[in-house]
Amino acid sequence: GAVVSQHPSRVICKSGTSVKIECRSLDFQATTMFWYRQFPKQSLMLMATSNEGSKATYEQGVEKDKFLINHASLTLSTLTVTSAHPEDSSFYICSATGPSLTYEQYFGPGTRLTVT
Amino acid sequence: SQQGEEDPQALSIQEGENATMNCSYKTSINNLQWYRQNSGRGLVHLILIRSNEREKHSGRLRVTLDTSKKSSSLLITASRAADTASYFCATDDWGSEKLVFGKGTKLTVNP
Q1: Are strands B105-110 and B10-14 parallel, antiparallel or unpaired?
Q2: Digit-coded pLDDT (tens) for A55-88
Q3: A85 in helix, strand or coil?
Q4: A89 touches chain B (CB under 8 A)
Q5: Does residue B68 surpass a pLDDT of 70?
Q6: Listed ranges A47-56, A90-99, B16-25, B27-36; the one with the highest mean pLDDT
Q7: CB-CB: which of B33, B48, B98 is closest to A49?
C-alpha cells in the first residue's frame, strides 16, 4: 500500500517551453502532497506543500509563478515548470501523506527534467 | 537552511560489516525519520522514531534518538551490497507536516 507514482520519469524540453509533471497516489487519498527538487549529489529541498482544493504554500525563494502547482483531487497533484530554463534542470520528487499515514511521507520515483 | 546534518557524508564498507550513520538537528522535533534513496530514484521510508522514544528496531535497522543532544543514529547490521544507497534523516517541526532533510550519507557496501 501507499504507492505514489510520477509521470513522466524523464523529460527533455527546450528552453522557454513548459513542462507538466504529475504525481498520483495510487491506493490512498493524499490530503497533502509535497514537491521537492534535488540537485545532483545533494539533498531534497522542499519547494511547496499542496492541499487538495486549496492554493499551494511555497517555500521561501521558490517562484510561484514559475512553478505552478495544482492539487485538484485527493489523488493527483501537478507541477508545471513554466518557461523552463537550463537552470531548472533537476530531479523533481513528489511525496504524499494521507489521513491514515500520519507523519510518514510516501515518495514518488521522481522526474528527471533536462532543459536544453 | 537545512536542519538535519548527516555524518559521515560517505561511507564505504565490506559486506557483512555494520554501517553507522549519524544525524544532528537544530530545533525541537515531533519525530525523526530515516529514508533511503537509490541512485536516481525516489525515497523509501525506512523507520520513524518519535521524540519520546530512544531506540527502535526494524529488521537489520536500529535507530537511536537522543533529544538532549539533538542527534540520531542509524545502524545497519550485517550489511549487504544491496544496501548501497544514500541515506537521509528528516525531521519535522513540531506540529508541521513538512520535512526537512539532511544532506545524506552515501553508503557503499562492497561485495
Answers
A1: parallel
A2: 899 999 999 999 999 988 889 999 999 999 999 9
A3: coil
A4: no
A5: yes
A6: B16-25
A7: B98
E runs forming strands in chain B: 5-7, 10-14, 19-24, 29-37, 43-50, 55-58, 61-66, 71-76, 85-93, 99-101, 105-110
Closest by Cβ to A43, choosing from B31, B97, B103? B103
Residues B100 and A4: their CA atoms lie apart, in Å, by 20
| pLDDT over threshold 50, residue B1 | no
* pLDDT for the residue B27: 86
Q: Which residue has the cell 531506540?
A: B55
B31: closest chain A residue by CA: A103
Amino acid in the structure at residue B88:
F
| pLDDT score, position B4 | 63
List, as ranges, residues 56-85 from B with C-beta within 8 Å of A: none
Do the Cβ atoms of A49 and B40 come within 8 Å?
no
pLDDT of residue A54: 84
Rounded CA gap, B6 and B76, in Å?
Answer: 15
Q: Is B91 on the interface with A (CB under 8 A)?
A: no
